[in-house]
């Protein structure tokens, strides 16, 4: 039986690589960030990496139904791909998605269909996403937030959402870095 990542990579590639190559590179970079923090995830490292490579599949033209990619991706994973429930929930709630759902009038819908995973996993996926450029290279969350706001425009729904989410994104990053630092200080 394949691991979650062995299953997730080909699925994400089949949905993103051809129609959205830049988005595919971003997802590969987010998955790479997930591998860098595996030491604080124990048995959930494979789960996080699978969610990381799949987190933006809702942008795929064939999947985009509502225009809200976390919900579209999670519904596809649940209804079509038969994915692991925890992967689905992480995709549904990645990177403060509940705040964007609220701005879209979809928060009840999102939270009614998909429960949130544990805070440390949501933090970890947010950290990975917000420390990766659209091209998949490492960055920091402040530059990433500024890039998103600039790309969509400060008055757009996404521009307003990302500024509203900024304190939580920075807090997620801080909590993950604290866990990584503590793990590295532990004696072997």
TrEMBL record:
Signal peptide location: none
Coiled coil: none
InterPro entries, sorted: HD/PDEase_dom, HD_domain, HDIG_dom
PROSITE patterns: HD
CDD domains found in the cross-reference section: HDc
One Pfam assignment: HD
SMART domains for the chain: HDc
All residue ranges annotated as the HD domain in the record: 23-128
Protein name: Nucleotidyltransferase with HDIG domain
Organism the protein comes from: Streptomyces pseudovenezuelae
């Amino acid at each position: 039986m394949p691991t979650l990542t062995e299953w997730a990579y080909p699925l994400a590639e089949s949905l993103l690589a051809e129609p959205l190559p830049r988005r595919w590179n971003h997802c590969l970079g987010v998955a790479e960030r997930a591998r860098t923090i595996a030491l604080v995830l124990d048995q959930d490292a494979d789960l996080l990496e699978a969610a990381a490579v799949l987190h933006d599949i809702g942008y795929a033209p064939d999947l985009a139904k509502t225009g809200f990619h976390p919900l579209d991706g999670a519904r596809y994973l649940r209804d079509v791909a038969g994915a692991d429930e925890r992967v689905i929930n992480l995709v549904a709630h990645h990177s403060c998605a509940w705040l964007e759902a609220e701005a879209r009038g979809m928060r009840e819908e999102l939270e009614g269909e998909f429960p949130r995973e544990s805070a440390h996993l949501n933090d970890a996926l947010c950290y990975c996403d917000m420390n990766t450029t659209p091209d998949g290279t490492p960055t920091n969350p402040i530059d990433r937030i500024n890039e998103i706001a600039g790309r969509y425009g400060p008055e757009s729904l996404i521009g307003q959402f990302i500024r509203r989410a900024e304190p939580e994104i920075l807090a997620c990053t801080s909590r993950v870095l604290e866990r990584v630092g503590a793990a590295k200080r532990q004696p072997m």
